[in-house]
Here is the input.
Amino acid sequence: MNCTNCGTYNNPQSKFCIKCGNALNADNLNQNELNQNINPQQNYQQQAQPQMQQPINNVQPAQPQMQQPINNVQPTPTVNPSQQNTTFVDGKTFNFIKYIISFIIKPFETYKKEEGKLVNVKNGMILSGIVAGAMMIIQLLTSMISVIFVKTMDYSTFDYKTKIDFARLKDLDYLSLIGKNLLIYVCIILAITVVYYLASLVVKKSTNFIKTLSISASSIIPYVIMGMIVSPLLGKIWAPLSIVATIIGAIYSIIIFVLLINDNIKFDKKDMCAYFHLVCMTILSTAGYYVYMKVLTSGITNQISDYLNMFK
Here is the structure.
């Protein structure tokens, strides 16, 4: 037994502690000591088992710790660059009317702002169609106005009088006016685009055909406004003003076109850039003059034939 005073082990038959002399009494034995004496091996296992299980019970499962960041991470969507580009340059998001109005005031800045959308095939074709269609409509209205206003001689005063005759509108060949003019204006835009695109390939300057088409269509806008709308109106006031408006519109369009092409097709030498535009514009001017003379000569020939038929 252990002494209750100093804890020294003594024989069970001893009445006094061999170390401190304290009286040993069986009633004062430590209950824990009796449990150890009864079954020391079982007591050791009971003491050892909580010591081994305690850290096991305190250890958190490793699986939730590994899954936590996985559950919090959102899956990254796969983005197709072509789809993203198509969404950005979708024709529905591009306001053509706003672009045309803004282009007249700030042509270069407006084009550079919308350049990413105009590279799209759909937007480039629509813009070209709008410009050609507007030119065709203006030409059709001009023909209709010139037909309904008729000048007649008043022999009493020997002065010309202008009267409006809407009945003459039925004499116009609308199918020919719409189809022929639309085809002519579309061919003009395409001719400018093709000449400059092929010339850029010759000088080994890579460029985008649709982008060149957008530049050609956009550059014609000032001429359409000044040469085809403002010029006839000013002509009613004073004829020279009509000529001035047409020249301003043509020069403005050429300047804008050259600036946009130079920004699209960059040359290291200014002389090379000048020769490039000289060759392209010479080709376009020669072809345009040839086609114009053919059309004009054909028109004059038809008019002469009509006059000769009157005498048959």
Notes: Residues 28-40, 42-59, 67-71, 79-91 have pLDDT under 50 and may be disordered. The first helix runs from residue 31 to 38. The chain is about 70% helix and 5% strand.
